Amino acid sequence: MTATEFALRTDAVGKRYRKGWALRDCTLALPAGGVIALVGPNGAGKTTLLRLVVGLLAPSTGTVEVLGHDVTASTPQTLSRVGFLAQDHPLYKRFTVAEMLRFGRACNLRFDQGLAERRLAKLGIPLDRRAGTLSGGQQAQVALALALAKRPDLLVLDEPVASLDPLARHEFLQVLMGAVADGEVTVLFSSHVVHELERVCDHLVVLNNGRVTLTGDIDTLLVEHRRLVGPRTPTDLDRSGAVVEAVHSDRHTSLLVRDGGLPPAPGWQAQPVALEELVLAYLRRPSEPSTTVPSGVPA
Amino acid sequence: MTWLIWRQHRAEVCVLGLFVGMFAVVLLVLGTQAHDLFPGGPAGCAGDAGVNEACAASFRRLDEEYGYVENLLAGFYLVPVVIGAFLGAPLLARELEDGTWQLAWTQAVPRMRWLATKLAALAGVTVALTGMFTAVLTWFRQPFDAWEGRFQYDAFDLEGLVPVAYALFAFGVATAAGAILRRSLPAFGVAFGAFLAARMAVALLARPAYATPLTTTEPVGVGGTTDQAGRRAVPGFADWVIERGYVDASGRRLSGTEYHELEGAANRAGENLNQFLHARGIQRFGVYHPADRFWTFQLIEAAVFVAVAAILIGVVVWRIRRRLI
Predict the structure, then answer these.
(1) Interface membership of A181 toward B (CB under 8 Å)
(2) What pLDDT score does A297 carry?
(3) Which residues of chain A neighbour B115 with C-beta distances below 8 Å?
(4) What is the mean pLDDT of chain A?
(5) Which of A192, B22, B170, B290 could form a disulfide with B81 if both were Cys (CB 3.0 to 4.6 A apart)?
(6) Given an 8 Å threshold on Cβ–Cβ distance, is A82 in contact with B106?
(7) Residue A157's domain spans which residues?
């Protein structure tokens, strides 16, 4: 793989604010093409990571490479290849929608005005309305149309649907996925909602307490992980090196393991795991691997 | 970018432009009438208030008919801060409070170019508006300056170069405060407070020390008036007097109490105070900056405020270059 076949590569990236580290030791290599979900609870460092990716922030440690280029150089060429939709999809509230499009045209090397107008017309959003008077869903659609009109190679969205009602959320995702199907754009978006991801995403990054706890292709991750249920036992079985989570009831022990599908021990039953279950198990894991993770589990 | 800056800031620019324009029209009308009181031009009467009958009459009419305008104008020392802070406060703060900085800096315009263009455009508007305001006001005050000199606070602070420097200072403070506080209104407030504090401190403490003041000593006039006909008093009407008082024959400055004792002694002796002082070799002294230092002082004060503005803008540029915002 050449460098440009990665949409995003980070190497030991950390970001420290005055209050402390928001992100530590983040090393990722995400392939171009497809949809990447960045999942984590509130305060996990998702927004920080995405702002580092689009060059709004500079890392305190490490390097961020987007589409083969260092983002902190922020040349017009690099900037024009990345589209960003910030949380709460900010717009200039006193601009009309047409003026927002003019803003996009004035500030970009390539800007497909026609594409944006067609998208907005299809959604019935009038161009002469002030952005601040539109509904939240419409504002999100205008912001998305702006980002897509750049014809970016990488589109980064921070919690794009978190503030939308279910109908607007559905419509937004429909437009987004339509755009993905149309072009060659790689989409990286963050979410604290886990369900529905399976349907939409190809790749997963789980972030917890400022650290990456899981990353990989979703299909592969689902094949590698299983739930094993058997008689109540201490966690340290023969598979202890692969145990992600152990839950004990009175008579049974349920283990979430990453063992790549070895045959289960006698008396144990293997079940496939759902993506949501998997993500939650990783999020529940204690955050400081050096001190609190059970011995032998790869951090 | 030009369109974007105009679209984002046109409200402030229009309001301020309208305000300065109206102000200029009113002053031009009143100023033409005031200038007409001096057939030979106001400069011809400079310092002649007590000398030339015609000039004295002109100054009297100026005071009676336009003195109120001069008093009103003293309050306009706030105009530079209003212009500078009004344009500087929202420059970054509005983007930061609305979250649109994330939109602005992820388009293809690199943030340093975005910032440089915005700073240059809005600082330019600040200079243009304050410059126009000051030019009209300086012209309007010509008759008053011929009467009272240009070193008074209501003249020096409103004329020449310094108002533009004050406006740039306010612009710098408001921009930097907006970048740090991330809110327009508090940034405006900070700029206002900083402006008042800095202006007062500089005018009262720093300005008299821009150069070593001159000291003059002269015998107490026997005739009873300090100004003798045909001779200009030193310090003159247009000089900036820092301190005045009396020295005894040995050159030692007299305190207020000592002077009052002498006054009492003269009364008891039933003598004219001036003759009494004259006979004892007591002299008047004045510590002052001569009027021709006006432009030197203007340049120094303007440089001080512009330098502080440049430092503040430098901090803003540094923060944004380092992506601390």
Answers:
(1) no
(2) 37
(3) none
(4) 86
(5) B170
(6) yes
(7) 3-209
Helix axis angle for B111-140 and B53-74, nearest 10°, is 150
- Is residue B90 domain-shared with residue B219, that is, in the same domain? no
B35 CB near a chain A CB, below 8 Å? Answer: no
**Tens-place pLDDT, residues B16-48:** 999 999 999 999 999 999 888 888 778 777 766
- What tens digit of pLDDT does each residue of B202-221 get? 999 999 999 999 988 888 76
Angle, CA B279 vertex, CA B276 and CA B281 arms, to 5° = 115
Note the pLDDT tens digit of each residue in B177-199.
999 999 999 999 999 999 999 99
In a domain, A165, yes or no: yes
Instruction: State the alpha helices, DSSP H only, in B49-161.
Output: 53-74, 79-98, 101-104, 111-140, 142-148, 153-156
* Contact with chain A for residue B4, Cβ under 8 A: yes
* CB-CB contact of A192 with A38 (8 Å): no
Q: Are residues A110 and A233 in the same domain?
A: no
Whether residues A189 and A283 share a domain: the answer is no
A103/B contact by beta carbon, under 8 A: yes
Nearest CA-CA distance, residue B99 and chain A, Å: 6
Quick check: A227 pLDDT over 60? yes
Of A186, A209, A232, the residue at which a domain comes to its end is A209
Residues sharing a CB contact under 8 Å with residue A266, sequence separation 6 or more, in sequence order: none
Whether residue A214 lies inside any domain: the answer is no
Question: Which one of A15, A17, A60, A74 makes the best mutation probe of the B interface by having the most chain B beta carbons within 10 Å?
Answer: A74
A156, A13: one domain: yes
Task: Output DSSP code: residue B322.
Answer: T
User: ipTM for the complex?
Assistant: 0.87
Q: Read off the pTM.
A: 0.88
